[in-house]
Design brief:
26 strands, 8-stranded mixed sheet, alpha+beta
Amino acid sequence: MQYHLNGFKPGNYEIPDEAREPYPEPPIVDLPNEVDVLIIGTGPAGLTMARQLSEFPDIKTCIVDMAPGPLLFGRADGISCRTMEIMEAFNSSEMVVKETYQLKQNTFWEPDSENPEKIKRTHKIPDARAGLSEFTHGIVNQARLHELLVDGMERTVTHLTPQYSREMLEMKIDEELTQDLQAHPITATFKRTDDAGAGKVETVKARFIVGCDGARSNVRRSMDIPLEGDSANKAWGVMDILLNTDFPDIRVKSFIQSKDHGAVMTIPREGGYLCRFYVELDLLGKDKRASDVKLTEKDLIAKAQKIFHPYTLDVKEVAWWSIYEVGQRIAQRFDNRPLGSSEDVIPRAFVAGDACHTHSPKGGWGLNTSLPDTFNLGWKMAAVLQGRCDSKLLSTYCTERRKVAQQLIDADRELSKLVATRPTAGDDSEQAKIDTAKIEAFMKRQSGFVSGTSIEYYPSYICTGQENQELATGYKIGQRFHSAEATRVADGRSQHLGHLVKADGRWRIFLFGDKQNPTDPSSEAYKFIDFLANDAASPVQKYTPTGTDIDSVFDTYAVFQQQDLEMHDLQGYLWPAKGKYGLRDYEKVFHAEEGNDIYDLRGIDRSAGCVVVVRPDQHIATILPVTAHEELTKFFDFFMIEQK
């Protein structure tokens, strides 16, 4: 898709440039007096949290922002493979894939050894993230991703919409009520900032609050949670521009180092014409902030033109620009519990996204770490609010996501040093020359983290079974369920199994059968399905509420090696009767594809098979032998609440 030819216009890219209008200011209605979950901030973390909770009609959610309306310009642009997978869980990946500019190559430019005043390409390489997912790393305006999440919220049964023009004045937690799950210990006070309601004060009581309100988070400050880390006293400029140039790699992600004028990183943007420039600026003085740098977009353009010599940059329009400082900080804790608290202490207030980790934007990690923060928290909060899981589940959010945030901080600190030609704080050298080979090595080494596909959670009671890892070496416990294709038995359709794991709060149980025919009652696959369907000890029987569909909590799929199976020869649990008419679901059984065999692709033991349990956030919870009926029950017994 191409757009922005005659100037940058935000909005829905399905609408032609000449017809696209800015978002109208949304109507403002009074905030509810009492909610289950109050979300502060409509960035990627806040909207992902709201998008998840909007699926549950029995959970009352409110999302609030001080902005007058949706985001229009700038900020994050990179959409990682993992973020695309999450958007698929929201049934929104197709439009993201269609609209993003896919990054396929990287180039590196250095001063020409024969004429150092000029730059010269040293090499061009494929993007290191290629092949890590069925999706490709892409570039699209963050505002467009927001729009897709908001549209998804509005189309759910709850019709949830953000509430704008509210500044949070105060947030208090009644500590005497925090351990009563039914209580509303959070009191948040807001001031209207729109002209019609200017000065009006509103108060909302909530059972939980999630602060997704950025680096200067009022929610975090209200909980007296410090940010730990430092600033490199280094400033960079960033701008999205429409330009004409004879630089040959303008549509390729490029790292460019000049001899005397610093460095630039360029990233081609969606639409075919727009491009983002990160321009290295000078050191900041001690105790100085990026806001103190008295430069304009014209200064950024002039600096970039010097770096690009002998190539020309004729900038026609600057769609957005900003100056930021390099620094890496992480919140001491991600919820309101004091350090060292037991997991039995119920957290009632959380921070996510930039509210708990800040860094430079060059690696494209901000949005792509913030969004998975609340994708992790959302299903856990829903399960607790619905009475399906013990409240101790909520404490795993801080444990799992703070580790990821620390990895982000460490990686960003390393990248920031690699791409800077001038020293950062603590670097005594007069000039730190970019070594493009080191940048290339860094990108290869960090490709899984950059793409989000290698994010791995610590072993815990929701990440177990490491002793069984050899049963499926390509399904790493704690990492996301790496999708691969299999053929649906009922109709012969090829299906990505990872796309079956939707953001609906359900657990997925994937049975990979052994070499024995699953229709044989003596086979282990047959026995396992019989256990799930009929045994009183089965988690399906214990934790599925009476009167609901059999797959309302545990959505089971089977993949077999046999190519000649018939659905009606398999147990009824694999093609269950559902809904008010008892209609049969024929989309739960698959066989491996010849030439694209999932058993080979994911290292599944053909002789023994295995069971892979996938959490509602698509991460692998455990791998078990097909015979491990009791172990499967014990896994869920530890944190789930039996339903009547």
